[in-house]
Amino acid sequence: METPSSPRSEGLASDGVRLEFTRIARSEAYEVTLPDGVRVRVEKSRARAVPGLGSLGPTTDAMYDLALDQLGKVALEGLVIDLGSGCGVGTRKLAGKAKAVVAVEADEAAARITNALVPEATTIASTLEHATVETLGDAALLVDVLAFADDPRTMLRGARRLLRAGGRLVVVEIAAFASQALLAPARRAMTPARLHALLECAGFRVDRCGAVGGVVIGDATAVDSEEAERLEGAAQLARSGDTDGGLALLETLSASRTISLQVQATLDAVDLLVAQGRADDACTKLLAVLRQHADEPRCLATLSQFMVAAGETNEAKLLAERAHRQSPLDPGVLAALAIAQQATRDPDATRSWKRAHNLSPDVVEIVLPAAAHALEIGQPALAERMLNRCMTYEGNVRPETLVMRARVLMALGRREDAKLDARLALAANPIHVEAKALVTALESLKAS
Prior knowledge:
The chain has 448 residues and is of the alpha/beta class.
């Protein structure tokens, strides 16, 4: 049973409105009593700031100020949507300046707090992907939200559907840097190039995108983009099992004049072709793009991985190095560089894996080979740290991550812990060959 660890305390949230906070015993959670008497549970975390309580992450106050400055006075004369509004830090700022405000927030408790603190705004408790509004927005702000998205492209497509054609979107995100070490629930930091490409693929014309201090600001206009619709349609076909239909639709984008759309369509097609066992066709597509855009980093990095698989390791390393020069903060590019460096016995592979993992700690496809490399070079403690960070993200406690951690724990001499992970992996997947082998080996060690 939850009990308060201390008496209720009050905090001024905004404009004299008081919230009552009661900390839940032995946790970072609080019970918040709203002015109307409704109680909600919140946690002090990196994900969102609670007015009067704060957060564990950077304040979004200054980020919203930057977004409002970029938006300008003219855009505030219409309906402005605060996308991923959290507990209303930015919604409150908007309500004092815009003619009409809508706040969209996926977390129900946060949406209730916004509704209580900013009653003049309309609050919608929904994800951006599924939200609906009575009137499409004239402008929208997306501040420190893409960092937490499972799929930022899908999130931006949701934002596009809430804006009229010609409506403006201003995005402000924490900027990526080389020594970054993201912690859950933050999944990514942004570079101007990556944000620019994501916006174009989601149906926006990018008017400005660049770094300002420690953030990246994107200013874009919603357009009727048939090509962006086709890109999304191909993804939907692929998810429904119609791979050939998805590939056919992606093929129509191979001659797109918008480089980001052409590249993304190619990379999506490569994933589908590899799943079908058509690696040669996948390489042909990559080479076609590179003939037009010789230094496109994600295509270079992907081709590098094919070259490693084909045994052309020196050529693979050259390709990965070219990609890295163009995009040194892309975790996928860093992973490709690490793979090529490993294949050529370059000692810099460890540094590349560390950077890839730091910039993308939630991606199992990066973390597992990074941990395997750390284990191979005799650094099991590093491997354990990588895996533990990865497994703090929802959905990452999978049989493959449990098996890898069991191997690492064995190397550290922690047999009982290793056995527990191996058994958990086997419980999740009773036919997992490596989990079975690990359980057997550990039982044998105990018996001897």
